[in-house]
């Protein structure tokens, strides 16, 4: 017997898989402009929840993102899982009940939880030798704090 809901979900996931493919299209440009404030296509590699994204998705795309999230969602358990978890748009790392994204920190190579732990085994905001601005340091401190509240 056909499972209609599974077929619909598969079509929604396929829509986002096509979005990640490298060819130009008007619909992809529109979707990209909608999700650009939350990290663009990077969000599809994150452990996100659409409710916690700081953007309003059109109904169809929200359903696509919900289906994608349902398939890619995970709860990190081991130390290795946690350090490899992407910080940005993560449903477990929230401020004011919304997931966070900082393009300037992504550009500095701070993407995964492991990236905020220095070679001296300090959190990034605790190590005075890490070349980030005081505002970025304060933000990272908020990320660490929000992750420990979960």
Q: Identify the overall geometry.
A: elongated
Separate helix tally:
6
The counted number of beta strands is 2
DSSP helix fraction:
40-55%
Structural class by secondary-structure content: mainly alpha
Average pLDDT figure:
88
> Gyration radius, to the nearest Å?
17 Å
Taking strands numbered 1, 2, ... along the chain, how are they ordered across the largest sheet? 1-2
Question: Which key terms come to mind for this protein?
Answer:
single chain, 150 residues, two-stranded antiparallel ribbon
Task: Characterise the protein shown here.
By secondary structure, the chain is an all-alpha fold. The protein folds into 2 domains: 4-72, no CATH class; 79-149. Helix content is 45%, strand content 3%. The chain contains 6 helices and 2 strands. It has helices at 4-20, 26-35, 59-72, 79-83, 103-107, 134-149, and strands spanning 94-95, 98-99. The chain has a two-stranded antiparallel ribbon with strand order 1-2. A hairpin with a 2-residue loop joins β1 and β2. α1 (4-20) crosses α3. The mean pLDDT is 88.
Annotate the secondary structure layout:
Layout: H1 4-20, H2 26-35, H3 59-72, H4 79-83, E1 94-95, E2 98-99, H5 103-107, H6 134-149
Helix pairs in contact: 1-3
Question: Gist?
Answer:
The chain is mostly helical and 150 residues long. It is built from six helices and two strands, in the order ααααββαα.
């Amino acid at each position: 017997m056909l499972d209609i809901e599974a077929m619909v979900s598969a079509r929604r996931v396929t829509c986002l898989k096509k979005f990640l493919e490298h060819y130009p299209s008007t619909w992809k440009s529109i979707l990209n402009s909608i999700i650009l404030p939350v990290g663009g296509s990077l969000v599809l590699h994150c452990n996100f929840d659409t409710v916690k994204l700081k953007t309003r998705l059109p109904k169809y795309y929200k359903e696509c993102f919900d289906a994608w999230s349902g398939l890619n969602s995970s709860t990190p358990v081991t130390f290795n899982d946690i350090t490899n978890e992407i910080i940005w748009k993560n449903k477990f790392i929230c401020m004011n009940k919304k997931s966070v994204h900082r393009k300037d920190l992504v550009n500095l190579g701070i993407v995964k939880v492991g990236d905020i732990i220095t070679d001296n085994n300090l959190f990034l905001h605790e190590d005075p030798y890490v070349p980030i601005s005081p505002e970025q340091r304060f933000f990272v401190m908020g990320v660490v704090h929000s992750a420990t509240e979960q």
